[in-house]
Amino acid sequence: MNNFLEELPAFLGPDFKIPQSFFKPKFNDGESAFFVVDCHTNKLCYMQGPLVNEIGLNEDQFKAKGFDLWVSLIHPDDVERVLAAYVDFTHAINEYHLIIPGKKNNKQVVEFRFRMKDQNYLWIRETKVIVIHKHQPDQTKAVGKLTDITQQKNDYQSSLEKFRLKKEQDNVMVKAWAKLLESKNKPDADQTLVDQYSADLDVLTKREKEVLKCIGEGLSSKQISDKLFISNNTVETHRRHLLEKLKVKNSAELISRTARVS
């Protein structure tokens, strides 16, 4: 990265100023590549960096084939979204006389999947800034950085999956308690089961038991809100309190046993 701190400004010359924050990597960033596009000709004039080697195409190939080659490497599911973002950025370039360095329309960040030489796709963050010649404002360049963010995306998806599984498990547990609450009022209920967990249910407030019963009926938070005439936020608060109060060590056993209760 340090090489590009010197090489890229040297390539552009002293009359183009690149924000230093542009070179600063984010946490868990992978390999990067830097590129420069002449906004007047819309031609690539510079592309270097370790990520270029992973793409498997060199600077000369990108220069020769240009934008068509670039788009051909973007994942088909991402192309439309990315091209729409490029149109917005092109408009910003065309309106360069309105651009003030540091303003929002001076920068664009777009994330997409990009095909590598092994035919696999990596998630890429493309960050571009428009830099203007100090003395000749009609000379503008788009300076870009491609960064491999595949690991970040994988970590994020893993976190989402863990959250989804936890929510599923919590929902199963709460429904098991709801089934037990319903069984307390049935003469043919498994009284051994009811007696074993009755003390845990007794700590619930009247409203929490009402919410628990609704959950057992399969109602969503919105439906519970409408039925009990309380806000959706209040329902979520009761859900949270139910989890805190009922998440005892033997919940797994309870879930197994209530699954057999009709």
UniProtKB/TrEMBL annotation:
<dbReference type="Pfam" id="PF08447">
    <property type="entry name" value="PAS_3"/>
</dbReference>
<dbReference type="Pfam" id="PF00196">
    <property type="entry name" value="GerE"/>
</dbReference>
<dbReference type="GO" id="GO:0003677">
    <property type="term" value="F:DNA binding"/>
</dbReference>
<dbReference type="InterPro" id="IPR016032">
    <property type="entry name" value="Sig_transdc_resp-reg_C-effctor"/>
</dbReference>
<feature type="domain" description="HTH luxR-type">
    <location>
        <begin position="197"/>
        <end position="262"/>
    </location>
</feature>
<protein>
    <submittedName>
        <fullName>DNA-binding CsgD family transcriptional regulator</fullName>
    </submittedName>
</protein>
<dbReference type="InterPro" id="IPR000792">
    <property type="entry name" value="Tscrpt_reg_LuxR_C"/>
</dbReference>
<keyword id="KW-0238">DNA-binding</keyword>
<keyword id="KW-0804">Transcription</keyword>
<dbReference type="GO" id="GO:0006355">
    <property type="term" value="P:regulation of DNA-templated transcription"/>
</dbReference>
<dbReference type="InterPro" id="IPR035965">
    <property type="entry name" value="PAS-like_dom_sf"/>
</dbReference>
<dbReference type="InterPro" id="IPR036388">
    <property type="entry name" value="WH-like_DNA-bd_sf"/>
</dbReference>
<dbReference type="InterPro" id="IPR013655">
    <property type="entry name" value="PAS_fold_3"/>
</dbReference>
<keyword id="KW-0805">Transcription regulation</keyword>
